[in-house]
Structure formats: structure tokens, C-alpha cells
Structure prediction request, 252 residues.
Amino acid sequence: MKKIVSIGRGGVGKTVFIALLAKYFRDQKPILLIDADPDQNLAEMTGVDLGKNGTKTVSDILFDVKFDKIEEGLKSLALADKIDYLFNQKVLYEGKYFDFISIGTKWTEGCYCQPNNILKGIIAKIEKHYSYVLIDSPAGLEHLNRRITSSIDEIFAIIDPSWKAFESAKRVHKLVQEIGIKFKNFYAVANYRFPDERLESIEKETGLKFAGKLRYDEDIENYSLSGKSIFELIEDSPAFNSIKEIMKKVGY
Ligand SMILES: Nc1ncnc2c1ncn2[C@@H]1O[C@H](COP(=O)(O)OP(=O)(O)O)[C@@H](O)[C@H]1O
Ligand SMILES: [Mg+2]
Prediction:
């Protein structure tokens, strides 16, 4: 199993990156997508209608269990069995190209740690069955830490072209280590608005490994307006070609 995460500020292109990766790996099933961002737009970008399927988030079932809002027949089960049942029945969405879990908004450590730990255990266990686990993370890294179970293989930090972009990339790299997220490789990726003439200075100025640029793609912009799935993007599109180049460069 390889675990890949995109991180970065809001709006840089984290979700687009993960959706493109899901398309890139679609022939290497089984794949698990985890939407750890409370905004929850990975499903839409990958063409999954979770509402239609009656799918719940991890947070939803934690609250259902906490307030006993569950079917009568389940109430007598042991906590671990309840959660296991609800997770498999309600949370895990099994699709044609990938499976999908949405973490939801309310998952906090708090004092409700027993169900939390049970859920982390379930996710850690199922992750092993996949060839790729792709995680769309929230902008706040502390949240990521709570939601990630095991070590990450590749972290892609997506950087936008602000005048402090390099500083913020370095800070994110440091922060990831400080809060104890374990990873093998940490790469900087320039987002679609990053100027080409500054690409060469990324490695020199940040000391990070540079994986490439996710080029501007008109279709991506239009798809996010109309809610169309990134899986429908043609193979020879600028964004999909960028993903191919990036993944090749980092050894996939
Ligand atoms: N390669 C790209 N080409 C064109 N537009 C893009 C590209 N990547 C992202 N975008 C635009 O940026 C918006 C934000 O991207 P998104 O992945 O949702 O950011 P994040 O998840 O980091 O908040 C998208 O809705 C899309 O309009
Ligand atoms: Mg996002």
C-alpha cells in the first residue's frame, strides 16, 4: 500500500491534485480515497454522489453512536461491533474505480476517544487492502495529524505564487515534522498559477524536492463550475499530462 497526501493552503488545488491522481491510478485497483477536508468536495470532483447513496461520514456515525441514534437492532451490540457495522454499511462507499471514505466535519479527539480509536483502528486495518490510499487533507495540518492513521509515503505540498510562497512551503515542511506526521518523501508542487520563471528557484530557495507544476487547465476550471467529474478529462489535457510527469518524476 502506498499512501499519498496533498497539503497546502485553501484553494491551491489540493482536491484537484488528488482527483487527478485517482484518475491516474484507476487501472491499479483497489484504490481508497479519503476526504479528510471538512469542505468535502473530493466526491464531487471524482463523480461520486454520496447523498444519492445515503453514505455517511465518519463524523456522522460517531455522533449517531454517541447519541444512540442507531437502529434498535444494533443497540445491544458491543461498541466496537456497532461501529464496525456502521462503518461498513454507511461510510465505506464502493465505486467502480475506487472506494471512498469521507471524514466529515465534526471528528474531534475530545473526550470521546474510545469510538475514535475504534474508528482509527478500522481505517488502519482496511487501508492495508488497497494498492493506493489517496488523501485530500484540510488546510490545517493539526487536523491532518488527528485524521491520519499511519505513515505517509508521499506528501505533495502545493504552493501558490504569493510573495511568501517559499517561506510558507518551508514552514509547512517544518510543521509537518513538528506535529509528528511520519512520511517518506516531501515534495513541493507548483500550482497552476505559479509563474514558470520562478520554478527553477523552488529547490534552491526552499531546500525541498520539486516534483513539477500542475499546469493550468481550462477544463478543470469549467468542471469545478459545473460539477463535472475529473475522470471525464481527456488523457491529453494539460493537467493530466502534468500529473503523469510529476508521478513519473517521483518514481510512480
Ligand atoms: N490545474 C488547474 N487548472 C485550472 N484551474 C485549477 C487547476 N487546479 C485548481 N484549479 C481551480 O482552483 C480551484 C480550487 O482548487 P481545489 O483543488 O478545490 O483547491 P483546494 O482543495 O486546495 O482548496 C478549483 O475549483 C479550480 O477552479
Ligand atoms: Mg479541497
Summary: DSSP finds ten helices and eight strands in the chain. Residues 8, 10-16, 192, 214, 216-217, 220-221, 224, 239 surround adenosine-5'-diphosphate (ligand 1) (CB under 6 Å).
